[in-house]
Specification:
- The chain is 67% helix and 0% strand.
- The longest helix is centred in the middle third of the chain and has 28 residues.
- It is built from 3 helices and no strands.
- With 89 residues, it is mostly helical.
- It starts with a helix and ends with a helix.
- α2 runs antiparallel to α3.
- Keywords: Cell cycle, Cell division, Coiled coil, Cytoplasm.
- Pfam families: DivIVA.
- It comes from Dactylosporangium vinaceum.
- It is found in: Cytoplasm.
Length: 89
């Protein structure tokens, strides 16, 4: 199951019982906002990389252009794989 930015933003922690120590709610909320913004940025970057990896990208038709396009696609796929792994953790 993949965690979404909306799920992170909606998450709320219960208050610690009276007399018990707990987390500062404001700090937790601020951290969750940072996590959600990071997930949004990663999802946006993944979408951009998927779009850039489209075979419709115009590189020309020469063998050199095709080789350049394939090398660029390999770099994009590697970056996409790393980003997807980061989002899943």
């Amino acid at each position: 199951m993949m965690l979404t930015p909306a799920e992170v933003q909606a998450l709320r922690f219960a208050r610690a019982p009276f007399g018990k120590r707990g987390y500062d709610e404001d700090e937790v909320d601020q951290f969750l906002d940072v996590v959600a913004q990071t997930l949004i940025a990663l999802q946006d970057e993944i979408a951009m990389l998927r779009l850039a990896a489209s075979p419709d990208a115009a590189y020309g038709t020469s063998p050199a252009a095709e080789s350049q396009m394939l090398a660029e696609l390999d770099r994009i796929k590697q970056r996409l794989t790393r980003l997807e792994a980061a989002v899943q953790h």
